[in-house]
Amino acid sequence: MPLPANIRAICYNETDLSAFRVRMVQQTLVVGTLQCKGADGKHLYQQQWADFVKKFDPELSANFRQMQTITKAKRVNYDVLVTEIANRTGGRPALDPEFCPRQHRAFEWALTPNVTTLSLVPSPYDFGPEMKVFPCPPQ
User: Fold this and answer.
1) Residue 18: alpha-carbon gap to chain centroid
2) Please, is 134 exposed, middle or buried when counting C-beta atoms within 10 Å of its C-beta (0-12, 13-18, 19+)?
3) Which one of 19, 108, 114, 135 has the fewest CB atoms closer than 10 angstroms to its CB?
4) How do residues 64-97 score in pLDDT, each as one tens digit?
5) Residue 42: which residues within 8 A CB-CB, separation 6 or more?
């Protein structure tokens, strides 16, 4: 995707981009938790979600506050941004037959002992470019 002409005005510095990515991981995994079900209709990743929240709760809380500050500075509605990530994730199962296995791999990675921060967890999907969230180019 080509960068917009006004990239310097809308780009995210590395700290803000990292915060956005953490929120994207959280939103993607919560949607996966709700959508991925076994043949018996039970949610497949409820326990992994509970373990994820327990492991990263302080970081998720800090990220929430950080994202509110970032979205305010960017003049973006936080709730709309989070909803957009959730909606984009919610549409993926129709396009990606690996949706639930992708969620499973993300949980496995996040819950390993050597992953000590959410910044080490890649999101199953990167919606940044689709959502016009671009890193600032080098000067």
Assistant:
1) 10
2) middle
3) 114
4) 999 999 999 888 899 999 999 999 999 999 999 9
5) none
